TrEMBL record:
Subcellular location: Nucleus
GN (gene name): POP4
Keyword Ubl conjugation in record: no
Organism, as annotated: Hydra vulgaris
Cellular component aspect of the GO annotation: nucleus; ribonuclease MRP complex; ribonuclease P complex
Name of the protein in its database record: Ribonuclease P protein subunit p29
Pfam families attached to this UniProt entry: RNase_P-MRP_p29
GO molecular function: endonuclease activity; hydrolase activity; ribonuclease P RNA binding
Known partners and oligomeric status: Component of nuclear RNase P and RNase MRP ribonucleoproteins. RNase P consists of a catalytic RNA moiety and 10 different protein chains; POP1, POP4, POP5, POP7, RPP14, RPP21, RPP25, RPP30, RPP38 and RPP40. Within the RNase P complex, POP1, POP7 and RPP25 form the 'finger' subcomplex, POP5, RPP14, RPP40 and homodimeric RPP30 form the 'palm' subcomplex, and RPP21, POP4 and RPP38 form the 'wrist' subcomplex. All subunits of the RNase P complex interact with the catalytic RNA. Several subunits of RNase P are also part of the RNase MRP complex.
Length: 218
């Protein structure tokens, strides 16, 4: 069956020559395509099932969403260009605002009256904290004091008041920091975890909590 545009939509001069309803078009289409393959009663049943339903005569166009390739910088390039390194020209005074934000973070998360040695202290974010090396396997680190500007799994990077950037290993070291009105000592071996993982980590062993020593009203 062939239906011209004029038969469907009328003449170009505005006068409609023929008018095909959906029902008429569907009946003619079914009879022409199935009359040689199906019996009359089967065609009637098919007409009844397809009544008032939309029919897709051609396969719809499917558009696949293109994946956006994001450029990633390799670790080699990170190290080569020092993208995540603290610049040598960094000044202690530039990180004081970061320390102020850290103090607000501590006040909002810890009680200023009572402080318990629990695993919550081991999950805190140390970026911006003022820490002091109380003890270390390497004697040259003992007494160093500064603001934490970077933390990795095994290292604290601090900047001292003399604008010196120091890398201090966590292992075999004891760190001291002030939390509200308390002085807290933390064994570095208890926090040798990536900061992003440590924030949600559950410390099952009570030995981790025993690595905390809290002194009040100093």
């Amino acid at each position: 069956m062939s239906i011209t545009d004029n038969a469907l939509y009328g003449n170009t001069d505005g006068t409609q020559k023929h008018s095909f309803s959906q029902k008429e078009f569907l009946n003619d289409y079914i009879i022409e395509t199935l009359s040689s393959k199906r019996k009359a009663d089967e065609i009637d049943k098919l007409k009844l099932r397809l009544k008032e339903k939309s029919i897709l005569l051609e396969k719809a166009n499917t558009f696949k969403k293109k994946k956006v390739n994001t450029l990633k910088v390799s670790r080699k390039l990170n190290k080569q260009f020092g993208l995540h390194e603290v610049p040598k020209c960094a000044k202690y005074i530039d990180f004081l605002p970061l320390h102020s934000l850290w103090l607000q973070y501590i006040k909002s998360n810890f009680n200023s009256v009572t402080l318990k040695a629990d695993e919550k202290l081991l999950r805190i974010d140390f970026h911006g904290a003022q820490i002091k090396v109380r003890n270390s396997k390497c004697k040259s680190y003992i007494g160093l004091n500064g603001i934490v500007v970077k933390e990795t799994k095994n290292i604290f990077v601090i900047i001292t008041k003399n604008d010196e950037v120091k890398r201090i290993p966590k292992s075999m070291s004891i760190f001291e920091l002030k939390l509200n009105n308390f002085l807290v000592k933390i064994a570095g071996d208890a926090i040798c975890v990536l900061p992003s993982i440590r924030a949600s980590k559950k410390f099952k062993s009570t030995n981790k909590v025993n690595h905390l020593l809290i002194t009040s009203n100093f």
